[in-house]
Amino acid sequence: MNTPKISFVSLGCPKALVDSERIITQLRAEGYELSKSHIGADAVIVNTCGFLDSAKAESLAAISEAMAQNGKVIVTGCMGAEPEEILKAHPDIAAVTGPQAYESVMQAVHKVAPPLHDPYLDLVPDQGVKLTPRHYAYLKISEGCNNRCSFCIIPSLRGDLVSRPLNEVMREAEKLVKSGVKEILVISQDTSAYGVDVKYAPSEWQGREYQTRFIDLARALGELGVWIRLHYVYPYPHVDDVIPLMAEGKILPYLDIPFQHASAKVLKAMRRPAHQDKTLERIHKWRSICPDLAIRSTFIVGFPGETEEDFQELLSFLDEAKLERVGCFPYEPVKGAKANDLGLELVDDETKQSRYKRFMERQQAISAKRLSTRVGRRIKVLIDEGGATQAKGRSPWDAPEIDGHVHITSRRPLRTGELVMVKIERADAYDLYGVAV
Ligand code: SF4
Question: Rg of the chain over CA atoms, in angstroms?
Answer without folding.
Answer: 23
